[in-house]
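User: Let's play a game. I give you a shape written as tokens, and you guess the letters that built it. Ready? Here's round one.
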């Protein structure tokens, strides 16, 4: 087991488990502000121990538990236009901005079609719709949902030339307190769905994202205290930039090199 996965599992087992319904009631946060952090495993272990300490004022953070599992395998397929409009808009901070993906929960087989919008204040607004088994991710139902969301939110038409761009896989543990949710990801693996090239994240890093309806949370302050700054990194843009060197410039260049240590991406048949 790679170090980041081991640290994730130990942190999850040390926390009080709560079901999905409790997480949704305490911190569903479909509209939220968030920050991303690239946390070395040694610091992550100390950070998680503070969050889940039963002596913590206000009570400890709990961990999402479903059918006895406290960490879960995720697979996401990201879609973009042939000229990577979503990638470039996100990199440049253009508004309105949005990303489209299919998320698969590997441990349960559930699938969701998701649209992540960027609001006027920089907040993320997520819209999602379940996908039936065997249904195409970009079938009529999903495209109708996409058109409705974009028209209602931005007053724009949905692109008609969407195609496969990037697949990401990782393992996630989620910690929750009232109004706060923290996702912790390890073993990130990205595959360019155009070229078949793949890249793996540093096994000594945990990707931490804080989520709240406000701004800085207790988790943000803890990480800042450990000397870990917020990073400009998303799995879609970071993974694609690591796999396509011509896209690597931009505000997240340093973060991409941290997550994906310099090495030649491997090529595999699609």
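Assistant: Ready! My guess for every position:
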């Amino acid at each position: 087991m790679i170090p980041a996965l081991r640290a994730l599992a130990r942190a999850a087992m040390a926390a009080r488990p709560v079901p999905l319904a409790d997480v949704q009631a305490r911190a569903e946060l479909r509209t939220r502000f968030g920050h991303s952090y690239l946390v070395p495993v040694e610091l992550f272990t100390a950070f998680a121990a503070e969050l889940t300490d039963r002596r913590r004022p206000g009570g400890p953070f709990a961990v999402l538990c479903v059918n006895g599992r406290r960490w879960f395998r995720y697979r996401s397929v990201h879609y973009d236009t042939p000229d990577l409009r979503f990638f470039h808009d996100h990199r440049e901070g253009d508004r309105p901005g949005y990303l489209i993906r299919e998320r698969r929960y590997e441990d349960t087989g559930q699938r969701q079609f998701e649209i992540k919008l960027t609001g006027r204040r920089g907040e993320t607004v997520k819209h999602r719709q379940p996908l039936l088994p065997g249904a195409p991710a970009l079938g009529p139902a999903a495209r109708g949902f996409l058109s409705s969301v974009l028209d209602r939110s931005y007053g724009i038409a949905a692109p008609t030339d969407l195609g496969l761009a990037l697949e990401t896989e990782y393992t996630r543990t989620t910690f929750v307190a009232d109004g706060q949710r923290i996702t912790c990801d390890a073993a990130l693996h990205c595959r360019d769905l155009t070229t078949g090239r793949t890249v793996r994240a540093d096994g000594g890093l945990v990707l931490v994202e804080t989520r709240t309806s406000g701004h800085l949370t207790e988790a943000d302050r803890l990480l800042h205290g450990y000397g870990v700054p917020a990073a400009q990194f998303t799995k879609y843009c970071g993974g694609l930039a690591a796999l396509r060197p011509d896209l690597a410039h931009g505000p997240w260049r340093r973060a991409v090199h941290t997550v994906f240590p310099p090495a030649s991406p491997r090529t595999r048949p699609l």
